[in-house]
């Protein structure tokens, strides 16, 4: 998918589907999180190392708009961009497309980093890695 900073391909597994035969709505959060972790890894951010430095990244808000459904065996792509939300918050703009390019889900996952004292803190190294 063009226009995104990162994308990751997936395939729906049988056990991710509900009684109607479609992916359970909660499973989409797992897809989004896994894609974010892979994105962070691709830009050199390691959660264990960040935590050891006293920088803990957290999600503060999740907005998901379901547009169409995925079924067992479907292949799809999660695409990601990162935006600066405020002085202390960033947002992962994530879209999921099926193999035909049809939009399945639009998400905005807002987060921040907190320091060892539990206070919001946006370290320069994180902003630099995000390109913000």
TrEMBL record:
UniProt keyword Transcription regulation, yes or no: no
UniProt cross-references to SUPFAM superfamilies, sorted A to Z: Thioesterase/thiol ester dehydrase-isomerase
An MF annotation (GO) of this entry: fatty acyl-CoA hydrolase activity
Record has Hydrolase as a keyword: yes
Pfam annotation, one family: 4HBT_2
Alphabetized UniProt keyword annotations: Hydrolase
Protein family (similarity comment): Belongs to the 4-hydroxybenzoyl-CoA thioesterase family.
PANTHER family: 4-HYDROXYBENZOYL-COA THIOESTERASE FAMILY MEMBER, NOVEL THIOESTERASE SUPERFAMILY DOMAIN AND SAPOSIN A-TYPE DOMAIN CONTAINING PROTEIN (0610012H03RIK)
Protein name: Acyl-CoA thioester hydrolase
Taxonomic placement: Bacteria, Pseudomonadati, Deferribacterota, Deferribacteres, Deferribacterales
